[in-house]
Amino acid sequence: MTAKHKEAVPANPTIKENYPVLSPKEAQQLYPDIIIDNKDFICAAHQECTAPLTCRCLDKKNKTAAFVEGSKKINKHHSKCPFSNENDEESSPEVNYQHREKQFVDSFTGEDVLYLYGNTYRKAKKPNSDTNGKKEGKLDGQQIVTIPPKNSNTLPTRQKQNRYETLRKQVDLFELSPENKVIDRMTGKTIRIKDIFLPIKSNDLSSNIKSRRTLIYYGLAFINEPKSEGKDFNIRFSETLELDIVKGKPAFFIDRETLYKKFPVIMEKWKDNKNMLVNVYIRAHLAINNGYINFDIDKEVLPEQFFVTLRK
Which residues are registered as beta bridge partners of 292? Predict the structure, then answer.
């Protein structure tokens, strides 16, 4: 089947709880912070249907996303679903999607807003429920409402901004356009995205920089495989630093599962060339411990505080 679906239901129960039904565009906006797989959807055309759907172009923000059939050879739709083969009328029946009517008219401000709090990234808020049973969630500044408005002929206007509140989004923007201006959410000032990034070779202890936040170090690094089974991988920058009386290459350790889960494409390439250099970003203070230069960061928060990309 080549049918396109206007909406789909997240197959992941946890995601479904907060986002019961999504349009292709909404799914794109949730990638990769909440939705990480383009096949994590099922049909929304009938409440009993669990046919798999795929979100085409989920990871390509510059293209129009669409929900298409996950199984092209076998029709897996429920017999009562409009997309089932049992509905063989000449014209397709009207689909009664489990959708939410729009609650707002979006007014795009064109502003890029930077969220950079303290020493870590703010956790996403869970939807709140009020006494009327209305649930709200966040989609890059958007609001999802699961119950249509009552007796409302006009919709209020809502301003919408581009929010950069995860390391991945900040890195993506930095690599794409380092001179891009953003509004610092904390200070209200306009800065360039490159201002929150420090090249590792700058030899600065970020704790000495007069900034209210921890900035992001970046540079070329090697992914080093552990010598013993079950040990963590070592990510070591290629630049040699001299801080105080210590000289060395900054490094940090990360577990195998996190690397392969967050960066599957990079790790597949690394298996073919274990001496390859990659771009590494880490949001943490440089520190000196036992004669080594590393990063002052808790292991529990490290997965959210570093990011890896391929060299251009």
Answer: 289
Decide if 142 contacts 29 (C-beta within 8 A): yes
In percent, the amount of the chain with pLDDT more than 70 equals 74
- Half-sphere CA count of 184, side-chain side, radius 13 A: 16
- What are 235's two structure tokens? 């990510």
H helix or E strand, kind and range, residue 173: helix 167-176
Instruction: Judge if pTM exceeds 0.85.
Output: no
Q: Please write the tens of the pLDDT for every residue from 62-98.
A: 788 999 988 778 888 888 888 888 765 443 445 555 5
Asked if 198 contacts 237 with a C-beta cutoff of 8 angstroms, the reply is no
- Name the residue with tokens 């907060």: 18
Token output for 189: 């000032």
Q: What pLDDT, on a 0 to 100 scale, did the predictor assign at position 223?
A: 97
Name the β-bridge partners of 206. Answer: none
Residue 244, judged by CB atoms within 10 A of its CB (0-12, 13-18, 19+), counts as exposed
Burial class (CB in 10 A: 0-12, 13-18, 19+), 220: middle
Burial 269-288 (b: 16+ CB within 10 A, else e): ebeeeeeeebbbbbbbbbbe
57 φ/ψ sector (left φ>0, alpha ψ -120 to 50, else beta):
left
221: which residues sit within 8 A by CB, 6+ positions away? 235, 236, 237, 238, 277, 278, 279, 280
Residue 46, token pair as written in the block: 């009938």
